[in-house]
What does this fold into?
Amino acid sequence: MNTRTLSPRLVLSSVMLCAFVQSSSPQRAAPAQETMKSVPQAKFTRRRYIEPNMLAPELYSDKLSMKLTLVDLPGASDPRSAWEGTYKLYFISEAEFEKVGRELTRKAREENGGARVAGWNPTPADFPEKILLAEGSISKKNLATPQQRVHLQENIAFKEKIPAELRTKGAHLLSAYSVKVFDAKLKTPVYDSGIFMAFPFDDQTDPDKIAPRTIVYTNFIVTPKGQIWESQLPRKDGDTNWM
Amino acid sequence: MKRNAPNLFTRVAATLFAVGVIAAPAVFAQTKPKPRATKTTDATKTTDATKTTDATDAFEQQLRVRALDALRATGEEARQWKDAAAAARVQSQIADLTWDVDSDAARVQLVRAWESAARVNEKDESNNTRFRNSPRVQVRQQVLLVARRRDRALAEKWLEQMAAESDASKDKQPRGVFDDRTSRSAVLLEMALANAATNPEAAAELATESLRDGVSFGFQNVLIAIQEKDFKLAETVFRAALARVKTSGLVDPNEVFILASYLYTPGRIIGANTSENRGNFPLAVSVLTPTIKAAAQLDPTLSTEFLQVAADALLALPLPSAAANVQEAARAQLFPTLMIASRLPPQMSELAARLRERAQQLETDAQFSNVPPAETPDRPSPRAGESPKDYSARRIDSMEEAASKETDPLARDIAYAKAALATNEEQYERGYSIAQNIKDEQLRCGISDWLTYAATLAAIKSNDLDRGRALIKRNSEPVERAASYVIGARKLLAAKDALRAGEWLTEASASIKSAGPDEDAARAAFGVAAAYAQFDQLIALQTLAVAVKIANQSPASYDFEDQRAPLVKRFAGLAVQTPTNGTSGFGVKAAATVFGAEQFDDALATLRGLASPEARGVAVVSLCREVLLRRPRVAPQKVS
It folds into this structure.
C-alpha cells in the first residue's frame, strides 16, 4: 500500500466555509430550516416562500403535542436499556428572530473588523422574549416495543399563548433537547443535545397543503455503531425504519 | 502492507536445486580420507556446512508442507463461517499463497472467495453522505487483486459482473460527493493504488481503464502515487482523462474538481456545494500530505489543456432546468464553472466571459439562501488575522462559557463534555479541568480517560516516555493503560532498551489482568504478545496463550483487519477524534505474524485454541503467510 497518497480510507471529510464566491442574488426567502441530519438533504429540504411579517392566525393551532420518539436502538429488547432526557418548547416571534439575528451578526461583524460573517448561533438563551410553551423530562426503562419508546406531551396551549400581533407565518417554534440513552447491548451511554426550529405551520405531513402544525416531532435512533441521529420530520407510529 | 505475490514453486525449486548442489560435494567429501582432528580443512568445513544445510532445508520443507496443510484445512473451514467478509479475505489469501503449488485447488479457493464476498452486505451502514464505502466492494477489491495477479481472465470476468451490478443498482442508494463513479472503477483504482509503488505502468493502465465509467474520486490518489514514481506517466494518464471528458463530456461536474485537485492542490479536494448555504463546501484532505509538486507547476501546458477541456465540457452541460432537482443541479454546476472562469488566463478571456454568463444563469436556478446559516457553539466565526492556536483557545472558551450558562443539568454536562473534547493533546490540562465540571460520573470519567489516553499516546509518540508513564497512571481504564504500556515498550525496543521494555510489558500484563475479559482486553493482550516477540519468543508464546484465553472468554466478534490499539468506548454520540489512529500491532492478526519458523508449531497449536472459527482461521493464515513468504535461506557462496 502506498502510504504517501490520499486514500478514501485516510481522508478526513469536513465542511469548510469558503468565501471565494460572493452572493449576488438578493432574494427575499426565508430558509427552510427543517432538515434531517445525516441524511441526504435533497431528499427532504423544500423551499418555502415566507412573506415577511404576514399575519397568519389560521396557521396556528389551538393545541400542540410534543412527540419524542426513540425510533430504535440495538439493545431495545434488553431490559437494562434506558432512555432519559429533558426538553423545552419555545415560541420565537418573527420580529424577535429577525432582530436577534441582525444584532448578533452585527456584533460578530464588529468583532471581526467589519468582515462578512457567516452566521450566528441560535440557542434559546439568545431570545429574551421567547415564550415557553412546554417543558418536560423523559425517564423510560422498558424500551422493547416502538410504542414504549414514544414520549408524548399533549394539550400544549399554543394559539392562546401567542399575542395576536405575533401570529405571523415566519415565526418559529424552537425545541431544545438533551438525551442520554443507555444501550445495554452496546454497553455504552449515548449522549446528544441540540435544537430544532420549525415554522408554526405544517407542510410536510401532506406536501400538497399548508396546515396548522399540531405535533412537534423530535426523533432519535441509536445505530449499531453507537451513533445517534436526530430528525424532526413527521413519522408514523411504530415505524422503526429511519429513512 | 501488501507484498508481492509469492512464487512458491520457484522457491521450492530453488531450494531443491541448492540441496542438489550442496549434496553432491558432500557425497564426494565422504569418500575422502578423514581429516585429522587437530586441523580443520576446507573439506570438513564444507561437510559440516552441508550437513547443517541438509537439516535446515529439510526443516524448511517440512515447515512449508505443514503451513500449506494448515492453509488447506483453513480454506475448507472458511466455507462454513458466518462472517462472509473474513471468509472471503482468508480464502483469497489462501488462493494466493498456494497458487504456485497447486493452481487448480487455488483457483477453486479464489472462486469460493468471490462467492463469499457476494454474501457481504452491500449497503454502507455508516450514513456518511460524502463517502459511501460498500463493505462488499471493499472485500471484492481484495479478491480481485489476487485474481488479477493470478488469473487475469477471471478478474476481467468479475469486473464485468460488477459493472453490470452497478448499472442495475444505480439509483438504489444516493451517491456520496466523494464516491467513485462505480464499484468497478473503485476496484480498479484501488488495485492501481496497490500497484503504483512497485509497478506504475500497471497502475497507469488500471487507472486509465477506470475512466470508462468517468473520472472517479480515487483517480487523483492514483495520479499522485504514479507521479511519485514517474511524472511523465502520470501526465499521460491525466491526458487520457482529458480525452475522456473531451469525447464523452462530464458525467458529473465534480469531475472538474477531481482533475483540478491533482493539477493545483494535490491531496486537497473540494466537492460541489449542493446545500442552501453558498459558503458550504465538502472538503477532503489527505491525512498524509503528498510530497509531490503540483502538476500545473511542473507542466503549465497541462493546466491550459485542462482549462480548455473543462470549460468546453461545462458549457456543453444541459441547463439545470431540465433536471429533476433544478436547484441541486444548478448548485453543482455553478462552482466548477466559477472556478474554471477564475483560472482561465487572459488570452482565454472570451471563454471566461461565456462561463461567467453561464454562471449568472445558474445563480438564478441555484436559489441560495441569503439568510446566514446557523452556527453551532463549537464553530465561532474566525477573526481577521487570528492564528489557529488563538482560534482554538477562543473556541474552547466560547464552548465552556456556553456550557456554564446552560440551566438543564443533562444539557450542561453534554456541553462541558463537548468543550473538553474540543481540546487537543497540548491543551490536556485545560480539557481535563473542563471535564471535572461534568456531574454525570460515568460521562466525567469517560471523558477524562479519553483525554488522558490521547495525551498519553501523543507523549509516547514524541518520545516523552516519562510524561507518558505519568499520564498512564491517571487513566482509570486498565485496557487503555495496557495498550499505552505496549506502545511505550515498542518505543523502548526501538531505542534498544529491552530491559525497560520488559518492565513496561509486565505492567501491561498486570493491567490486562485487572480488566474484564472482553474484546478490548484480548486485543491488548495480543499486542503484548506481539511486542514480546520482538525480543523474547518464549514469553511471547506464553502471553499469546493468555491472549487466546481472554479472547475465548469474550463474547464479542473481532474486526480482524483493525490492528490499532484498543479504544474502550465509554460514551457515544459526541464527536471525537480517534486517538488510536496511526497505532498498530494489536489484535490476533498482528500477534500471529510475529513468530518465526522455530516457534511455528507452538504458535500454530496455541492459535488453533481460538474458539471463534473466524479468529482461528485469520490467525492461522497470518502465521502461515509469514512462514511461506520468508526470504529464502541463502545458500553458501563457496562450495569446494
